[in-house]
Amino acid sequence: MLPRPLVVDVVIPALDEERALPSVLAELSRAPFETPGGARAQVRRVVVADNGSRDRTAEVARAGGAEVVFEPQRGYGAACLRALAHLAADPPDVVVFLDGDHSDYPSELPALVAPLARGEADLVIGSRATGRAERGALTVQQRVGNALACRALRLLYRARYTDLGPFRAIRWAALAALEMSDRDYGWTVEMQIKAARRGLRHVEVPVSYRRRLGDSKISGTIRGTAGASRKILWLLARHAGPRP
Ligand SMILES: Nc1nc2c(ncn2[C@@H]2O[C@H](COP(=O)(O)OP(=O)(O)O)[C@@H](O)[C@H]2O)c(=O)[nH]1
Ligand SMILES: [Mg+2]
Questions:
Q1: Highest CATH level, class, for 6-238
Q2: Which carries the bigger pLDDT value, residue 80 or residue 4?
Q3: Is the CB of 175 under 6 A from ligand 1?
Q4: Domain assignments of the chain as residue spans, ordered by start
């Protein structure tokens, strides 16, 4: 008998993404698929985590077949945590995080999940640095900031990464063990720091990246760039001491 397909749930933090979300959801296949390497998997649930969108984000998300959860407090991490709490009653094997702005390619999900399906990793980061990024999709500050943060991850935690990209896949059990807590911009780097400190097996796969649809909330704004830089540096420094 064939083993049952790997159950994959997708979490999409979204703030005012009515323009982008319909395309993201349309490109996200729910059909069972075979990962490169031969394991079977299927996207079961898609959860859009909204905190205070003023546009029709929630409506277009539901129309696109997603479940919507609301988090009263703003922040990328707060939204992710709310979505995970929603999934906890019936957890998947694997969670995929994906932005709601149409920058990531949902069609690349099978390649992202493949190392988990093969049992070769607990965390897979989609790297835009080793993949193809459309011109203008990443700001100069983002490229430089990500490269510096990855250098720090290597020096402080001996973890080899080339990106802090949002498109990533992790085993549910591994994610639970990380006890994620960051409620805003530090979400991605916190996951990578903790994965390194706790000895999770991680790999990167190259992913493509394109210009978003709609307006940027983080990297394209001064407030977002400053907030993200500050938070990422702070987390890199804070976790660097002896393990508690
Ligand atoms: N729920 C929620 N989603 C957010 C928040 N800030 C950004 N996002 C979402 O996070 C993703 C990345 O944000 P984006 O504006 O594209 O940032 P950028 O890629 O750095 O330009 C998008 O799907 C946003 O809608 C927030 O405070 N709450
Ligand atoms: Mg974006």
A1: alpha beta
A2: 80
A3: no
A4: 6-238
